[in-house]
Amino acid sequence: MRPLTTVHLNTERGWRGGEQQMAYLAEGLRSRGHRVVIVAQRDGEAAKRLGSAGFDVEERRMRGEADVIAIAKLARLLRRIRPDVVHCHTSHAHALGRIAARFGGRPALVVSRRVDFSIYRRSFFRLNGIKYRKGVDRIVAVSDAVKNVLVRDGLEPSRITVVRDAIDVDRIRHAPPVDVRARVGLGSRARIILAVGALVGHKGHRYLVDAIPALVAAAPEAHVVIAGEGELRPDLERLAIRLGIAGRLLMPGYIESVAGWFPAADVFVMPSLEEGLGSSVLDAMAAGTPIVATTAGGIPEVVRDGVDGLLVPPADPPALARAIAELLRDRYKAYDLAAAAAKRVETDFPVARMVEETLAVYRAVLADRTPA
């Protein structure tokens, strides 16, 4: 089959799970002989990192979904490159790419959907339905949970393909270890419970903080470290003071590369209320860190309760505290769960699988466009 020319559009300035998945895909496509062009925010992390990795990066200012100048420039770029596929990796990228593709030669348009809430949640007069129904050849959902939400929103199931996230196990296991205790000021006896993610409501960190008093009562050496930054930081700090556990909550802020933090953690926790899949869970699995997570969104598609980790209901601090304390007390159980998770992530979530499944989506879309 002939090599494809693909354009990957990302409007985020930072670097989170979605950007890492885009990087995995871009490298996989390039290694298979396909042309990859990245369109990313000027001076953003994606432009910096992928440019340093030798990718063809086009930096653009993209100021939201209605940025007419960005759309016009993107359309000119598409007419020049003449890609087979434009893959939009964020919601704003979807809006920009959809219009630009219409005036840029009408390449096939593929859109990734990474979140498990309704497309209408932040939609004015339900206008989001238009951008998902018109001009999009295929939607790639990161989990069955995300696909189910899209179907409930009225989208045609045949236009949605599930391609789960992947993990480069070696990237995690060979990351230089970080002296987390020194970074956050903990002694050698402390038991570290690590959470990673933006400090925003749907990540559920407030319920983890709520769980700390019961957790400390069951495991006196427990300390919770939340690596991330966001709008809820002041609220979490005030909550910790009110609960009298401020010394048990450490928030070192945004960590550019968290991979080296996992070996220091006794338990990794993902307390999300909503989660498309949970790429940080894959990182913890690859690192061999025992996991406690909620049943939100696509997490149960990755972590099997009692097999690869422990799952609890979302927004349930007592259940979170019990599950974490159980793994702190029972090191054999924690080891067995972590070992099973490490094996599962190698077999079920390799990067090669994700790349081949995405390529299959591209091929199918292009075949559907080819006249009989």
Describe this structure in words.
The protein has 372 residues and is α/β, with parallel strands linked by helices. 43% of the residues lie in helices and 17% in strands. It has 14 helices and 13 strands. It has helices at residues 17-31, 45-52, 68-81, 91-103, 128-133, 144-152, 169-173, 180-184, 205-218, 233-243, 279-287, 317-329, 331-348, 351-369, and strands spanning 5-10, 35-41, 56-60, 85-88, 108-113, 138-141, 160-162, 191-196, 222-227, 249-253, 267-270, 291-294, 310-312. It has a seven-stranded parallel beta sheet, with helices on both faces. β4 (85-88), α4 (91-103) and β5 (108-113) form a beta-alpha-beta unit. α1 (17-31) packs across α14, α3 (68-81) crosses α4 and α9 runs parallel beside α10. It is elongated. The model has no long low-confidence stretch (mean pLDDT 94).
Strand content: 15-25%
Distance between the termini: 18 Å
**Number of helix segments?**
14
Helix content: 40-55%
Provide tags for this entry.
single chain; 372 residues; alpha/beta; 7-stranded parallel sheet; 6-stranded parallel sheet; 14 helices; 13 strands; 43% helix; 17% strand
Write the layout of secondary structure elements.
Blueprint: E1 5-10, H1 17-31, E2 35-41, H2 45-52, E3 56-60, H3 68-81, E4 85-88, H4 91-103, E5 108-113, H5 128-133, E6 138-141, H6 144-152, E7 160-162, H7 169-173, H8 180-184, E8 191-196, H9 205-218, E9 222-227, H10 233-243, E10 249-253, E11 267-270, H11 279-287, E12 291-294, E13 310-312, H12 317-329, H13 331-348, H14 351-369
Parallel strand pairs: 1-2, 1-4, 2-3, 4-5, 5-6, 6-7, 8-9, 8-11, 9-10, 11-12, 12-13
Helix pairs in contact: 1-14, 3-4, 9-10, 9-12, 11-13
